[in-house]
Prior knowledge:
By secondary structure, the chain is an alpha+beta fold. It has helices at 2-35, 100-105, and strands at residues 38-39, 48-52, 58-59, 63-68, 73-75, 79-81, 91-93, 96-98, 108-110, 118-120, 125-130, 134-136, 141-145, 148-149, 154-156, 171-173, 186-191, 197-198, 202-206, 209-210, 215-216. It folds into 3 domains: 38-91, Complement Module, domain 1, CATH 2.10.70.10; 96-155, Complement Module, domain 1; 171-216, Complement Module, domain 1. Helix content is 18%, strand content 33%. The strands form 8 sheets. A 4-stranded antiparallel beta sheet has the order 9-11-13-14. Strands 16-17-19-20 form a 4-stranded antiparallel beta sheet, with no helix packed on it. Strands 2-4-6 form a 3-stranded antiparallel beta sheet, with no helix packed on it. Strand 13 (141-145) and strand 14 form a beta hairpin. It is elongated. Mean pLDDT is 88; it is low at 1-8. Residues 37-94, 160-217 form the Sushi domain. InterPro entries: ComplSys_Reg/VirEntry_Med (IPR051503), Sushi/SCR/CCP_sf (IPR035976), Sushi_SCR_CCP_dom (IPR000436). Its main location: virion.
Amino acid sequence: MSTIAGAGFNFWSxxxxxxxxxxIQILLTYSSQKEMRACEEPPDIDFGDIVSGxxxxxxxxxxxxxxxxxxxxxxxxxxxxCNGSWTPPPKCLAPCxxxxxxxxxxNMFLRSGRRHTVVIxxxxxxxxxxxxxxxxxxxxxxxxxxxxxxxxLCISETGKKCGRPPTIxxxxxxxxxxxxxxxxxxxxxxxxxFYTLTGQNTSFCNNGNWTKPPVCx
Length: 217
């Protein structure tokens, strides 16, 4: 009888110990889940939306995915992750529109020989040519950068002459100045010692007017 009682006592002792362990494990799991770092709503981005991973609450390791509107170019990772705060979101870069009127005003056309409105995506490069009677003074290509494009410069070869080139503070042209220059002619600038040249180091005579000279800082 004592043996059976002893066996029964050991069995229930084992069961109680097991239940105690299970309860402790449940409490530890619940506690660890509560300690997971939460994030606020993921940030909105201009010209784009979240397309995957949206939910009512976000905790550590949750991810969401972004997509840009048609025509816009996504930079950085399309996914962001919750680490107590969100990793940096991507950005949607705007395309560039080159109009027929811009090409006419700048005396140029597309390398294809056409002069019409086109749309190119950010980071895309396009090549230009000058109209007859004009020449390129800068590289013939332009790159779209988030909705902005830097056009090359077409200078008139037969326009009005220019007077002396513009003077700049803390710098000068590298040659002796003439009284007048033919359209299309250029002068080069350099800065005095300890000054740094900012902008293009060359100014062009364009139909009676000089293009913007550099600055010495």
